[in-house]
Write a structure and sequence with these properties.
5-stranded mixed sheet, alpha/beta
């Protein structure tokens, strides 16, 4: 069996060549150079022919076990020979490893984004410190991007309010009930915003909601043919509140019967 190279272990499938590896007790320094074909200008997409210069980038990488990995990537700056292009030179990017204006590798950005999605700001930052990843809560939150809102509403649309700031500011969250994925977030819970969204995004056949009058009015106005369904959580909550109220009203009778 052929032995694996440094490129196979650390950069599988990347167009790079390892030139030097320095292995210390807690840091692994890897110097690599790009071997990709000449890049294309990001403005006009013309493939480069002439190299302007080279320089070194140091993108952050995920740790390897308990050791921090430092990658020193040597990339090329190319001339753009198209006279009508406003860009004179540009720097190549290694797909899967580097990106323009990024201090971290593409793989590490994926790690951080996944952690931020699952944990949010401060908890994600605490986990990153345990994993020896340099990322504060502000940087983690900046990695979160809003998904594209579909042109049509899902077949089964769930709608409910939530608090931006409890007791002060509320919004509306829209969910695809069949897949469990979020669809959109509305800035308030008024009877004007939700029907406007329904008119711009037709297609909801079933709307699952609480018993708020604002949402009921919105459905009647913008989606009169949709079937309205009370969601299970609010039904159970209302039931538990009714049972608790009834037990409280008849507490003396219940206590007497319990003693007997």
């Amino acid at each position: 069996m052929a032995s694996k190279t440094v490129e196979d272990v650390l950069f599988p499938g990347f167009d790079v060549r390892a030139e030097r590896v320095s292995d210390a007790s807690d840091v692994l320094v890897v110097e690599v150079a790009s071997t990709a074909c000449p890049g294309r200008c990001p403005n006009c997409c013309k493939q480069a022919r002439r190299v302007h210069s080279t320089y070194q980038r140091t993108p952050d990488e995920p740790p390897l076990g308990s050791r921090r990995v430092v990658v020193r990537l040597r990339v090329r700056r190319y001339f753009c020979d198209r006279g009508s292009c406003s860009r004179t030179t540009f720097v190549e990017q290694v797909p899967g490893l580097s990106a323009a204006y990024r201090r971290s590798s593409t793989g590490l950005v994926g790690w951080l984004r996944s952690i931020a999605i699952e944990l949010g700001g401060r908890p994600a930052a605490r986990l990153c410190r345990r994993l020896q990843l340099t990322a504060g809560r502000t940087r983690l939150l900046r990695l979160l991007t809003a998904p594209a809102v579909p042109d049509r509403a899902p077949r089964v649309l769930g709608v409910d309010e939530f608090a931006f700031r409890k007791g002060c500011t509320y919004g509306t969250v829209l969910v695809d009930v069949e897949t469990g994925r979020g669809v959109d977030v509305l800035p308030d819970r008024t009877s004007e915003t939700f029907p406007a969204w329904l008119k711009e995004h037709p297609g909801a056949e079933i709307i699952c909601r609480d018993r708020a009058t604002a949402y009921a009015k919105a459905v009647r106005e913008a989606a009169p043919n949709a079937v309205e369904v009370a969601d299970r959580w609010h039904l159970l909550r209302n039931l538990s509140a009714a049972v608790e109220k009834t037990c409280h009203q008849h507490s003396d009778c219940l206590r007497k019967r319990a003693e007997e």
